[in-house]
């Protein structure tokens, strides 16, 4: 991918709605965290965990002081 392709992508993203931009930003953040597990090892582990048995309910996460 060259600079011109990247610039076209950026211009396309600017034309998206705020909601769609937020969705793309979240997607890119998750992809970046997956690439570098040293940044946030716990979050990386949780992102990679596809077993629903290990997932926390949102209400539990909101009330947990340490979110572990």
Question: Could you give the topology of this structure?
Answer:
Blueprint: H1 3-14, H2 18-35, H3 41-48, H4 58-63
Describe the structure.
The chain has about 70 residues and is mainly alpha-helical. The protein has one domain. It contains four helices and no strands. It has helices spanning about 5-15, 20-35, 40-50, 60-65. The longest helix is centred in the middle third of the chain and has 18 residues, at about 20-35. The chain is elongated and about 45 Å long. The termini are far apart. The mean pLDDT is about 80.
Q: Over all CA atoms, what is the radius of gyration?
A: 16 Å
Shape: elongated
Q: What is the oligomeric state here? A: single chain
Give the overall average pLDDT. 82
- Poorly predicted sequence stretches spanning 5 or more consecutive residues: none
Largest sheet: none
Order of helices and strands: HHHH
Q: How many beta-strand runs?
A: 0
Give the helix proportion (percent range). 55-70%
Our count of domains comes out at 1
Query: Distance between the terminal alpha carbons, to the nearest Å?
Result: 39 Å
Which secondary-structure class do the elements indicate?
Answer: mainly alpha
Count of DSSP H/I helices:
4
Q: What fraction of residues sit in β-strands? A: under 5%
